[in-house]
Design goal:
Layout: H1 26-46, H2 57-64, H3 68-80, E1 84-87, E2 91-94, H4 99-123, H5 126-140, H6 143-147, H7 160-168, H8 171-180, H9 182-193, H10 199-214, H11 218-243
Antiparallel strand pairs: 1-2
Helix pairs in contact: 1-3, 1-9, 4-7, 4-10, 4-11, 5-7, 5-10, 7-8, 9-11, 10-11
């Protein structure tokens, strides 16, 4: 996996075989919309459809052999996650990775993920702690991390930040950070933050945060997470400035 994507058209690349069959019934159409949504979400987050790329509905419909209805439903869901945006006289585009967007989203992350750590220290279960430790053990086996060149985290339950929020056991916080903002945040992290000379340091920071949560020290856990996210933001800012 690469840490930075090359800008391409939204229709480049091979179509996913899982979404090759058009839906013919309402149930089939919904299933196809789900698969279109998941495929396009992954391609946008990972940069295979590059930030700023124009979305052509006719070309995507041909690529996936999909009905316009299924495709539009998938695109609406991507828009709800702030992965694409519609502009007057321009149409739909993948969102850009900008310095302003970075600062805004990382300000929110620092506040809310810091809170999540504090709540996790109070509310976590023993099962949460076991799963967090097991997750870090899996991360530690990554060849890129051992070399210190990158720290790639799969999405969802295998993502450190996702699991910390889950351990907070606060439904509103989970909805905000694991649903509404998660994939926009992950887009920045995946394309600009995971391939980094900070790999070893980031892993150690994760370990220290879990230790604070395990000790029930919410104040320390929040401080460590805020510091961790500020360092991550600084790393991505440096990459963006070099691109510009």
């Amino acid at each position: 996996m690469e840490g930075q994507a090359t800008k391409t058209s939204a229709v480049d690349g091979k179509a996913d075989a899982a979404v090759a069959e058009p839906g013919t019934s309402s149930r089939g159409s919904q299933s196809l919309a789900d698969r279109l949504f998941l495929t396009l979400r992954s391609e946008i987050v990972e940069g295979r459809i590059a930030a700023g790329s124009k979305i052509s509905e006719p070309e995507l419909a041909r690529r996936f052999d999909a009905s316009r209805g299924s495709l539009r439903e998938a695109l609406m869901r991507l828009e709800s996650l702030s992965l694409i945006e519609r502009r007057v006289n321009v149409g739909a585009r993948v969102v850009d990775l900008t310095e302003r967007g970075l600062l805004e989203i990382y300000d929110v992350r620092e506040a809310l993920e810091g809170m999540a750590c504090r709540l996790a220290a109070q509310n976590r279960s023993e099962e949460d702690l076991v799963e967090l430790r097991q997750m870090l053990e899996r991360h530690e086996q990554q060849e890129e991390l051992q070399k210190g060149t990158a720290y790639f985290q799969p999405e969802g339950d295998f993502d450190f930040h996702f699991r910390i929020v889950q351990a907070a056991h606060n439904d509103l916080l989970i909805d905000t950070l694991c649903n509404k903002l998660y994939y926009r945040v992950r887009m920045y992290r995946y394309q600009l933050g995971m391939a980094s000379p900070r790999a070893h340091r980031a892993f150690r920071e994760h370990s220290h945060i879990i230790e604070a949560i395990e000790a029930g020290d919410g104040e320390l856990a929040e401080i460590l997470m805020r510091r961790h996210i500020r360092a991550s933001r600084s790393n991505i800012e440096n990459k963006l400035s070099k691109q510009n």
